[in-house]
Every structure is written in C-alpha cells, then in structure tokens.
From TrEMBL, chain A:
It is an enzyme of class 1 (oxidoreductase). It comes from Rhodopirellula halodulae. Gene3D superfamilies: 3.10.20.820, FAD/NAD(P)-binding domain, Fumarate reductase/succinate dehydrogenase flavoprotein-like, C-terminal domain, Succinate dehydrogenase/fumarate reductase flavoprotein, catalytic domain. PROSITE patterns: FRD_SDH_FAD_BINDING. This is succinate dehydrogenase.
Length: 669, 284
C-alpha cells in the first residue's frame, strides 16, 4: 500500500467459483480478504454445474485445435455480442486453468494412462471438455473452497457467511471504499472498509420466480451495485434450457440426452385431458415437434425445442396441466433395460424429486431460465495482441471506481448465448486474472482501507439501517405480501421475457412491473423480529429484483431482432424460398445485405444506467469490439444456409483482401 | 429408489405439518402446527415455502414464518438438512407423497440435534467446517501460478477419490453418530467476541472430529501432492477427538445421502494411523 504499511484489504462478495478463485489469488498476492457470502461458501450455486469445463488440450491440438479456435467457437456461439479481447484472453488461459485445478486435487475423470479425460460438448467440434463425473461444478468449487480454507487457517481470509451485501460505500468522488453488509443471524449492519471490492454474486434467475438456479441467485447484489451507479449490460440475454422438471419449489435440469435417446415430446390434443397419460390413445396425442419439423422431429436444435414447447403451452393453451405449464417427454416406449443402460443417472433425478418412475409414466417437462448472459458492465484494457493487458487496473472494473465484477454477474464471455462448458471457465479465469489488476489498482491509490473517514462508514451504515427499519415498521396497515408479489413477478417475466418475445407483451409487462415495484416497496412483513429475520432479507432482495427486471424488459423491447437467446418472431429473418439457382443466389445476396444492415443497427451491447429519480433504467448502446473475428451469420437449421454461406464467404474474402490485414480467421468455418 | 405406484398416491386435501420452533439460541423450543393445501409433487421445501407465504398457524393465528436453510434444492449443496419424521435428511429430496405413505397424519420437522439452533430449523454447522481445518483437508500447492499439469493419476485412484470428494458437509453423518455430541456455549457477559470465539474453537478442537472429516483426510492422503501433509493429518486423527473417539456404530454410512463409504474411510484411517505411530516410534 502506498499510504500505510498495512496490507491491501479487499472485500470479495460472493463465494462461488469466481469469488473463491479471486480470494485465493488475492491472498497469494498478499491481500487480506473479507469474504462475504449469503451462504456458507461451499454451498454456493456453482456446486450445481454438471457438465464440465473447456480448454483446448494436447489431444485436440493434434487434430488441429488451438486456443484461437476455442476463442472463435465462443464468439460464434455468443452470436458475436462479445467484446473479443476478454474472450480471447480466456481461451488462451483455459489450458492453464485446467492444469491449476488438476494440481489443486479436482478428481477429473482419467484415461487408462492417467491423463485427464475429455468429452465433447455443445457448440464445438473437439473433445475439449474436462469433467469430474456429473458433478464438475461441485468438484471445482470444493477445490477452491479448500484453498480458501487453507488461507483462512493461515489468517489471510476472514469469512462472513450468512451475511447479506447491502451496497457499496462510495466517497465523494464516487470511488468504492468498501461495503455495507448485514449479519443474517443477528441482523447487525456493519461497514467493511476496503481498498477495492469484488462482486462475484452470480446470476439473477429468481427474477423469474423459479429457475434452475439456487434460491440465493436473486441478482440483488448486482442490482444494489446497479442502483448505486454501476452500469448493467445486456440484461435481456437470458439462457433458457428446453427441458427442466417443473417442481413446486424449483425447476431442475433434465439433460437433453433424454431426447437424444429417443424421447418423444407430446401433449394431449384436448386441453387438460384428465386421463392418465398412458390411457390417452395415439390419435388423441399431439406430437407437435414431429408434426411441425418432420425432418428433425424431437431432435430439433435446442433453441427451437425451447420455443415450440413454450408456444404449445402459452399460445396454444395445450399445457398438460391447467395451472402449471408442462409437456410430456415420453420414454415409456423404450425398454427398461435400455433406459437403465443409457439414461440411468438422469432418470434417477426425476424419480428422486418427482416420485414417479419415468420408465412407467411420461415425464412432465418445461423450459427453464438457466443462465444470465448479461450482468454488471465491466471495463478492460486491450493488449497489443488483441487479448487483455495483464495487471491493468481497469480490467473488470465497473463504472464505479474500485468496484470489480467477475463471474456470471459480469457481462463478458457469453455474448447473446452461452457456449456449453464455458461458464465454469469464465468464473475461474476472471477470479484468477483480475487478482493482479486489483492489487495494482490498490497500490496506486493515495488512500486505502484504513483511511476511509469514520463519518462515511457511519452514514453508509445508517442509510441501510434506515431501509431495514422502514421495512420492519414503516408499512403498518399495508397487506402486501412479498412472497405473493414475487410469484406475480415471476409468472409475468416467465410469460413475456423468456423464449418468445413480442413488443406488445413487453410494453404491457413494463407497466405491470412498475406497479408491482411500487407495491413491493410497501410490503408488510409477517416477522418484525430482530433475530434471523428471513422475511426482511427476502423483502429487500425482492425490491432489488425490479431494477434488473426493468432493464431486462426494456432492453428486450428495444432490440428488434433475433440474436442468440433473444428471439422475436416479428423480426425473424426468413429462409430462402427459391429453388432456381440464379434467384436463390439473388436471395442469398439480399439475405447477407440485410444481415449486415441489421448488425449495423443491433450488433451493440445494451448498457443500462439506473435513474433513481424516475425509478427507471436508461439505455444506451455500446459498439462491440469485433477486431479479431469479423461477425458472420449463425445459420444452423436455416433453409438455404449453403447459399448464404457461399455468398458470405466470398464477401468476407474480398474484404480481407482489401484490408490486407490477414488477422487470422476470417469468414465462416 | 422405488417409485410410487401412481394408483396408491394419497391425495388428501390438506397436510398437517408439526414444526419444532425455537425463537433464538437458548430459548425454549415449542411445537407449532400448520395446515397447508395439498398439491401434487410437493417436497418439504415447498411445504415450508407455503408456510412462509401464508404466515398463519393451523388455528388461523398470525405467526412469524418458520426459518429454514436451503440452497440448490437438488441435493448437492448440503444446506437443507433437517430431521424429518425422525430421520435426518435433505428436505429438498423429501417428497410429501412418500412422507404421507409412512405417516398420513402429519409431517414432523425438527432441527438437527447436534448443532446449536440459530432459529427454528436453522442450525449453526460451523463445527463441521472447523473439522476440515483440523485435518488440513486441502492440497498444499506452492502457488496458484501456472506451473504446468499435475501428476498423472491412475483411473483406480480417481475412482476411489471421486466418491469421497462428493461430501457436501451436510451433517447427516454426525447427526446420526452417537459419539458426536452437541457443543453449545453461551457468551459470558464480560467476554469479548474474540475471546468467545477462541473458547468455542478450543471446545470444538477437542471434541470428536466426525466421520466426514476423517473421510476427507483419507481423500487428501491419497492425492500425490496432498499426501505431503499425510503425517500431520494422521497426527490430528491420532489425537484427542480423533479416531479413538469413533465407536464404530456405522450409523454415519447408513444416513449419508451421497452414499459415501465413510466406514471404509474410517477403517483405512485406522490402519494408516497405526502404521504412522509405529513409524514414528522407530524414527525416534
């Protein structure tokens, strides 16, 4: 530290993969870390990740793979809505991340010779994915948790578990000087002065009521930073997984392999047919994927399956159940032995949580919100080779100076859509990579954690104490119940802002969310106690869901196109129709012109700023850095894709020749 | 697991839920009855969510919502352990239909008995994690810089370690263990927070470390770099509150939701500590 001789003091908020990786790295670099988490860090949502973690590796290299291709797959998978320097840096770090996690004892599956085994995952052509059984996230999280415990035993980390982050402390220049947090047991509110603060609090799935996320993924921490002046970007991009088990309490993931192994998706032709599914004859069943997509049938790509299931329930009103949306995913025509052999593991999940054997009775499934691609806007410094400048203080800093955002709660790495098995990588990478940036930032400051004026700490605590007290006592006579408002918000968001988005519905929802927000601000709590009051913690989280929900809806309303997870049928680009080669070529040219014109307009990150006086987000747009890989159309499943690709490649080659830049991979693969 | 036969599903209109509540540490526990509307496919978490939303007891009297702990709701984070109808388990995978098969009258929810109650069904499980510190359950790498790959690990070793590494520190094993006894201290009026914390850690450090921690010690002793601390881990397991405290009741392995071979780990630890003691005697 410049000013005093005390060590750099950093507050890390969030104890999932990103927060733990950051804590571990910062302590190695000599920092003292206060780690604040809603839950014991070992129970963070990262434990839920099943699939694996990507990196190019010795085996794929010999097949022509390299870091550049991993980079390319990531930005292509993200529909080019990524600033490319951070993604490039991540892809080049990926092999090192796997090696470090291996050294830390993650029990990755092994080959016979003892090397790390790999498998293929969606969106890539190479076996890049390292995995530890079906619990890769759990294993990675535990390895980091163990290292942080080791640092804790050495006195470098103090954990504050069951503490709720209430907001950043900012001085008169706007710089972040620490955080205010609340002990969820004693309800005591306390200030934590710091040289720098890292927010690593994950996604905001609970805005949708239920999702595949854990109960603490409310987005409230990110929202509190947003309301304090940090910008929030690409909120409208939320990944929805086509098949989840709709439980009363949460939506649990059902692997896509169930469809891959022959599962058939259907609904009764009569809405809410009261008969048991197996008593419904074939003629009364609507195999809507097979009828609508005769070529692909149940194996339509993930995004199409998601949209069709949604459509059949929401627009056609053919949900299997009246008060809950779901369709049948039927495996009962396949023999038990075959199911046990191929799908045993995942069928047990259904059995365990539904109490129904999917070998006897069709599963009830529905798409579920799964991952937030958007998040807190974070800066970076580009290096000469198109990656990130290691150690640059601005890497991953939000618009609040000294406040950093990493992991799922920042907006880099996933663009408009998520590449499978990249999310664990982005969390660990950002945690490790930003360590030196944060240390360098802190070292350059003339005043640090020990110099924060007591008056600032006191006033910050008081502001939060006032909010808390008002929630407990301020709304006497109101009968607004936070749990019921949450249910309304979730139902609304699920209906209008998941899979298929229509401008009229979005505009209507914005009005409705405004009303709900006002109601949520005057909730009356059943518990006004001062010990482990989960009611008030939840009420605060609920209130803070609204700024993000508004940014999400407004961002979706203003984006009149289809990109990645954001799909508006009214602005869908049509397939080619002509069979005549000349006319088809002309159509392809026109398609490419339109594609370029659309990118001109919408290949931009949405950046939301919170306006506290109007209680509304204000949106601006940011150019996307596509300096390494020029955008190209994603053509999967489109009729006429070959013709479009041909035209596109010719154009790209011409452009490349003109600029003579020769910067690596240009055009389509 | 055997699935329910759909035809035998009980579909009552309401469910009675009896909850053992406690307002704060040291307060007298009391029972409270709740009545909620039955819905198909409920689990104990959704029962508690309904109780929180309705905020009244069975007699229609306004009561504070029941406090409980949960996270992923997929039986992998370890948060939602409680005693349900007398048996310790995760509440997310406790299905109402199945519970009503055993006892159609009511569902009984209690906090774990081996940890201090924070409020209602929430307990303080810090001692579980302190056990992991006692046995140094980590790999002592030199640094977190890029130093190339780790050692090759044979598939057999991975397959032996993987089940152990699935331990989610949920606490079921220690709840069922007759040798793991509750430690609940109260802060004295003249005692500082730090002094109280130190006194608590001291009490934890002498008591039985628990099957989960023994199993983690064996996990890291079987890792090529982790075994650098094998001697220290075995010393910890040879000391007070170590292996000698285990009464071999084998309850731990019976209740583990992840089916971790805890008693196998304990047996392996027993052999390793014996060999370690002999070696130390010869090295004198």
């Amino acid at each position: 530290m410049a000013q005093s001789n005390s060590p750099t003091r950093v507050v890390v908020v969030g104890g999932g993969l990103a927060g733990l990786a950051s804590t571990m790295k910062l302590t190695e670099l000599g920092a003292q870390v206060d780690l604040i988490s809603l839950t014991p860090v070992k129970r963070s949502h990262s434990v839920c990740a099943q699939g694996g973690i990507n990196s190019c590796n010795d085996a794929t290299r010999q097949l022509g793979d390299d870091e550049w291709k991993h980079f390319d797959d990531t930005v292509y998978g993200g529909d080019f809505l990524n600033h490319q320097p951070p993604v490039k840096e991540m892809a080049y770090w990926a092999p090192k991340v796997i090696e470090l996690m291996d050294r830390l004892g993650v029990p990755f599956n092994r080959t016979g010779e003892g090397f790390i085994d790999r498998r293929r995952f969606g969106g890539t052509l190479y076996k890049r994915t390292a995995f530890a059984g079906a619990t890769t996230g759990q294993q990675l999280l535990y390895a980091l948790d163990e290292q942080v415990r080791r640092q804790e035993a050495e006195g470098n980390v103090t954990k504050y578990e069951f503490w709720d982050f209430l907001g950043p402390i900012q001085d008169e220049t706007g710089r972040c000087r620490g955080v205010v947090a609340q002990d969820m047991v004693s309800m005591k509110i306390k200030a934590f002065p710091a040289d720098a603060v890292v927010v690593a609090t994950g996604g905001c799935g609970l805005i949708y009521g239920r999702s595949t996320m854990s109960v603490f993924c409310t987005g409230s921490a990110a929202s509190r930073c947003f309301q304090a002046g940090a910008n929030y970007a690409n909120a409208e991009f939320i990944q929805v997984h086509p098949t989840a088990i709709p439980g009363a309490d949460k939506l649990r993931l059902m692997s896509e392999s169930a469809r891959g192994e022959g599962g058939r998706v259907w609904v009764p032709r009569t809405p809410h047919d009261p008969r048991e599914p197996r008593a419904i004859p074939e003629a009364d069943r609507y195999y809507f994927l097979e009828e609508r997509y005769p070529e692909y049938g149940n194996l339509v790509p993930r995004d199409i399956a998601t949209r069709e299931i949604f459509d059949i329930c929401v627009n056609e009103g053919l949900s299997v159940e009246e008060d809950r949306m779901c369709v049948y995913l039927d495996l009962t025509h396949i023999s038990r032995a075959e199911l046990d052999r191929k799908l045993g593991g995942i069928l047990e999940i259904y059995e365990k949580f539904q109490g129904v054997d999917p070998r006897d009775e069709p599963m009830k499934i529905f798409p579920a919100v799964h991952y937030s691609m958007g998040g807190l806007w974070a800066d970076y410094v580009k290096s000469a080779d198109g990656g990130l400048e290691a150690g640059a203080p601005r890497n991953h800093m939000t618009t609040i100076e000294g406040l950093y955002a990493i992991g799922e709660c920042d907006y880099h790495y996933h663009g408009a859509n998520r590449l499978g098995a990249n999310s664990l990588l982005s969390c660990i990478f950002t945690g490790l990579f930003t360590g030196s940036s944060i240390m360098n930032y802190s070292a350059a400051q003339s005043s640090g954690a020990s110099d924060v004026p007591q008056s600032l700490l006191d006033s910050s605590v008081k502001a939060q104490q006032d909010r808390h007290d008002h929630l407990l006592n301020g709304n006497a006579g109101s009968d607004e119940n936070p749990y019921l408002i949450h249910q309304e918000l979730g139902d609304l968001m699920t209906r209008v802002a998941t899979v298929v988005r229509r401008n009229d519905q979005l505009a209507e929802a914005i009005k409705k969310v405004d009303e709900l927000h006002e109601r949520a601000m005057k909730v009356s709590l059943a518990d006004s106690g001062s010990w482990t009051n989960q009611n008030v913690i939840f009420a605060k989280a609920l209130q803070d869901m609204f700024p993000l929900a508004k940014a999400l809806l407004k961002g979706a309303l203003q984006r009149d196109e289809c990109r990645g997870a954001h799909y508006k049928p009214d602005f869908k680009k049509p397939s080619l129709t002509s069979e005549d080669p000349v006319e088809r070529r002309r159509q392809a040219e026109a398609w490419c012109d339109e594609f370029e014109a659309n990118n001109e307009k919408y290949l931009k990150s949405t950046v939301a700023t919170w306006n506290a006086s109007t209680n509304q987000p204000e949106l601006t747009y940011e150019e996307v850095d596509t300096s390494s890989i020029p955008p190209r159309p994603r053509l999967y499943g489109l009729v006429g894709a070959e013709a479009i690709e041909e035209v596109w490649n010719e154009r790209a080659a011409k452009k490349a020749a003109e600029s003579q830049s020769g910067s690596g991979l240009v055009g389509a693969k | 697991m055997i699935a329910l036969d759909p035809s035998t599903k009980k579909r009552p209109e309401f469910i009675n839920v009896r909850v053992r509540r406690q307002d704060a540490p040291g307060k007298q526990p009391y029972w409270e009855l709740h009545k909620i509307k039955y819905e198909p496919e409920m689990n104990v978490i959704s029962v508690l969510q309904r109780i929180a939303a309705q905020a009244t007891n069975r007699d229609g009297k306004k009561v504070t919502p029941v406090a409980w702990d949960c996270g992923c709701l997929e039986e992998v984070c370890g948060s939602c352990t409680m005693v349900i109808n007398g048996r310790v388990r995760q509440s997310c995978s406790a299905l109402v239909d199945r519970l009503l098969e055993d006892n159609s009258d009511e569902i009984v929810l209690e906090p774990m008995s081996k940890f201090p109650v924070v409020r209602d069904l929430v307990v303080d499980r810090e001692r579980l994690f302190q056990g992991l510190k006692r046995v140094k359950a980590w790999v002592p790498v030199d640094s977190y810089f890029n130093m190339g790959p780790g050692e090759r690990i044979l598939r057999d070793d991975q397959e032996r370690n993987y089940p152990l590494s699935q331990c989610m520190s949920c606490g079921c094993c220690v709840e069922a263990c007759p040798q793991y006894n509750k430690i609940e201290l109260t802060q004295k009026s003249d005692e500082s927070d730090e002094a109280f914390e130190a006194r608590k850690q001291e009490a934890y450090a002498e008591a039985f470390v628990g099957p989960h921690a023994i199993s983690q010690a064996m996990l890291f002793n079987n890792h090529p770099t982790g075994k650098a601390l094998a001697g220290e881990r075995l010393d910890a397991l040879s000391g007070p509150g170590g292996l000698a405290a285990c009464g071999n009741a084998q309850n731990c392995v019976a209740v583990c939701p992840k089916e971790i071979p805890l008693t196998t780990s304990i047996a392996r630890a027993g052999r390793a500590t014996t060999l370690h003691a002999i070696k130390k005697w010869f090295d004198k």
